[in-house]
Specification:
Elements (H helix, E strand, L loop, with lengths): L1 E4 L6 H10 L4 E4 L2 H4 L2 H4 L9 E4 L2 E4 L1 H11 L12 H25 L11 H22 L13 H12 L11 H11 L2 H10 L10
Parallel strand pairs: 1-2
Antiparallel strand pairs: 1-3, 3-4
């Protein structure tokens, strides 16, 4: 099994899941040019990460990869069993993180894609932060009185939240101000498997574990 990733991207979540599973795997970190190379476009025609190769299967889209890893590794305890109430919750939050939270960041990181006004990038980035705040507030409220996103143990939903919540530590309203999310991110940042992912990426957790 091979994961194509890039440091700091949402593909970090798939890398964390593979570390939690504990089976042998390979990870290749791509830069922007690598994602657009003819070789990689044969694997993922979208030219982005993540992509997972398992035998003859090439699978893209983060949510699809995470659910595949859950189903292929039922004993790894990285997600609820199929047809259980918690599995329905897992689907709900993976869709929310993938389809709502994640796109809200794009105007911040790529403002030029969302306006033809070259002087309007700051306004686009400000609007992005408003939307991210809305989504993180929803997640933070969900986590009130809960240890993890779904069920009683960590899951791929927490892994998926991890990189995106990390991006917002640098926002005007930092992730640190969402106390329930910050608590989950701090626990994950201290997880040995997550630390191995950071070592592979050559970076550090966004949260200060000493604070």
């Amino acid at each position: 099994m091979k994961l194509y990733s890039a440091p700091g991207t949402c593909a970090t979540a798939m890398h964390i899941a593979l570390e939690w599973i504990g089976n042998p795997f390979e990870v290749e970190h791509l830069d922007f040019a690598g994602m657009k190379s003819p070789e990689y476009l044969k694997i993922n025609a979208s030219g982005v990460v993540p992509a997972l190769v398992d035998g003859d299967m090439n699978l893209s889209e983060g949510m699809a990869i995470l659910l595949y890893l859950v189903d292929q590794n039922p004993n790894a305890n990285i997600g609820p069993a199929a047809n259980s109430p918690d599995r329905v919750e897992l689907h709900k939050w993976l869709v929310y993180i993938s389809g709502t939270l994640h796109p809200y960041f794009w105007p911040y990181f790529m403002p030029m894609r969302f306006t033809t006004d070259k002087e309007g990038h700051d306004a686009v980035k400000a609007a992005s932060q408003i939307l991210v705040d809305k989504a993180l507030t929803t997640i933070n409220n969900h986590l009130e009185g809960r240890e993890w996103m779904v069920g009683e143990t960590k899951s791929v939903a927490d892994a998926f939240l991890y990189p995106m919540a990390g991006w917002a530590y640098g926002f005007e309203k930092s992730t640190a101000q969402y106390k329930n999310i910050d608590r989950v991110i701090r626990k994950l940042a201290a997880d040995p498997a997550v630390l191995r992912v950071h070592a592979s990426q050559g970076n550090l957790p966004k949260v200060d574990l000493a604070a």
